[in-house]
Amino acid sequence: MSATVLVVDDSVLVRQQVGRALTGAGFTIVEAVDGTDALQKLAANPAARLIVCDVNMPGMNGVEFLERLSANGNTLPVVMLTTEGQPELIQRARELGAKGWIVKPFKPDLLIGAVKKLTAAARA
Amino acid sequence: MVSSPHVLLVDPNDTGRELLAERLKLQGFAIHECNDGAQGAILALEATPAAIIADLSMPSISGVQLCRLLRSEAGTSSVPVILRGLESRRNHFWAEQAGAFAYVVKGRMGELVRALRRALELRSLENDGFFVVDSTEALDVRDRIATHLDAALFESVIAAEVRQLGSSESFDRMFDLLSQFVSQVTTYRWMAVLRDEPRRLGLHANPLTQKRALTEALAAFGVSDDALAKALVEDDDAIVDMDGPPAVTAPIHFGAAKVGTLALASQSSSHPGDGVLVKTIARELGGALRMATLVEESRFMARIDPLTGLLNRRAFLEWGTREANRSARYDDPFCVLLLDVDHFKLINDRRGHAAGDAILCALSRVLASSVRSCDVVARWGGEEFVIAVPSTPRQGAVRLADRIREAVAEDDIFDSSQNRVQVTASFGVAQLEGGESLEHLVDRADRAMYAAKTAGRNRVFSMNDGSVVPFVPDPVVSPSLGHPSNGV
Q: Are A50 and A71 within 8 A, CB to CB?
């Protein structure tokens, strides 16, 4: 069974890196370049089970994206993947329902571990 | 990575720690032990504990340092830390400063267990499974402590610098020094301070982008540009690029009262520390802002006659001396008019001092509205007023004096009981001579004024080559001739 993960990041390098790690672990990847694109990709891919999302992006940033998701009653787990580490931002993401915060550059094992755990919890 | 429910016990004393661990395990807690502060920090960062119990004094890093470090790390910022040590008010204070959940005196087992239960309850309420992973930073705790101490030092340096602005004696000077300092610490598109009372805006930006910076600053403060006093510091070295995140603002307090607001527009989101910086500066700026405002106010009060709101004698001499010297240097005529209210003693005696004061106020308004904008009116003392008339020769000053004399005599002046009072004044005029001081010039105007009094009051006399001469109006045909004003 291959769960679909939406990867939102304006950097093509990060999308490739995350994509490689997660496809290697058996996940299917859908990519989006910012929050606006991510909302469209979500609508087009109802099979998505989890979102990995950057914070600093042009257009709609990761926190604004979370705000939109939370306003839309989103139930998909979201993991933030970002270079930011400010406690205020992390707290804000947590309030908006994010499940975790991973600071870039990341160790692939940790990301895969977190994604597996969250998609399994969502299925249960 | 994900919080486990264990409690981390950090204590360098092996016997004491083992004993405590056993007793806590008997109470049903899962305990991980560690004998060193730095090691404890590493363990906590690797596997987030549900709570930490640490000794206040430990050899490598103290409990206070451990606590502050964990507070500042994203992954452990909400892990409650219970510090233990000897009974001392100082220890309580430092534990609280460091953000410890509780400080428990050693040997009070019941108190420790209760604190730990409370901590774990709180933790379970907060625990929604949210995790933070930060594998980028090397787990070298000493590096982290160094970074953390750098941040603390940074904060205290900023606090000290900002507090020094208290000696800057005016808002504009204070803001100028503040912008010089902050532009060394970070790069920004613009920085602004809005003082609430009296309202004044300080803005630091590049002149090329100042207009847009002003618009953004007004929006950030939520104020309009109407009649807003401003101190605009232009800086050619400042950032020209106006693209960046919206401004960060922080209120400036002095005691419990808000005295202003600080706003800073970062150049880009690459300065995540600007939020902390703005808060730190705003926290320290209240005293400096209040002090500068008080000095400004007292300077102003020292120059103003409290009854009439005109300049006082001291301020007039200060300003007039500069102006007279300037006129002498450029060979520009400079005159003073000295006037004294006629029969003022009688007015005071008959109507009382309140009426006298009301009349002086009304008269000062007539004077201020009768002169040109370059002339300066001041209260010389008692019922005497002085007017400096730059760039005007004696004949012109005399005509001006006579116009003012007429205005005073014709104006409806009311006393404090709203009774109309006929007020007249006698005028003396003198023109500055080479090498003469302002005081001497006023003395000569006073002699002319005395002659006007002697000659029957309500008239203008002037000094002409050492002799006193009366003003005789030009024989012009009045346009109102034949149309008596009382007929209108």
A: no
pLDDT of residue B477: 54
Exposed, middle or buried: residue B163 (CB in 10 Å: 0-12, 13-18, 19+)?
middle
Residue B382 φ/ψ region, left for φ over 0, alpha for ψ in the -120 to 50 degree band, beta for the rest: left
Question: For the ranges A2-11, A96-105, B208-217, B473-482, which has the lowest average pLDDT?
Answer: B473-482
Residue B421, strand partner residues: B413
Within 10 A of B112 (CB to CB), how many other CB atoms are there? 21
Q: Chain B closest CA to A107's CA: distance in Å?
A: 7
The rounded distance, in Å, linking the Cα atoms of B373 and B260 is 33
Tell me the chain A residues in contact with residue B74 when contact means C-beta distances shorter than 8 Å: 85-87, 90, 101, 103
Residue B198, preceding peptide bond in cis (omega within 30° of 0): yes
Rounded Cα–Cα distance for residues B315 and A31 (Å): 73
The reply to whether residue A101 touches residue B129, judged by beta carbons under 8 angstroms, is no
Asked if A90 and B74 come within 8 Å (Cβ–Cβ), the reply is yes
Quick one: pLDDT band at residue B3, thresholds 50, 70, 90?
Answer: very low
Q: Supply the pTM of this predicted model.
A: 0.48
Residue contacts between A and B (CB atoms, under 8 Å): 51
| Cβ contact A63:A6 at 8 Å | no
Q: What burial class does residue B120 get, using C-beta atoms within 10 Å of its C-beta: 0-12 exposed, 13-18 middle, 19+ buried?
A: middle
Cβ-defined contact of B132 to A90 (cutoff 8 Å)? yes
**Which pLDDT tens digit goes with each residue over B33-57?**
999 988 898 888 878 899 999 999 8
Residues of chain B with a CB closer than 8 angstroms to some CB in chain A: 1-2, 72, 74, 77, 128-136, 269, 272, 275
Across A106-120, average pLDDT: 82
Residue B288, judged by CB atoms within 10 A of its CB (0-12, 13-18, 19+), counts as buried
Closest chain A residue by Cα to residue B132: A101
Q: State yes or no: ipTM above 0.85.
A: no
Which pLDDT tens digit goes with each residue over B392-406?
A: 999 999 999 999 999
Confidence label for B269 from pLDDT (cuts 50, 70 and 90): low
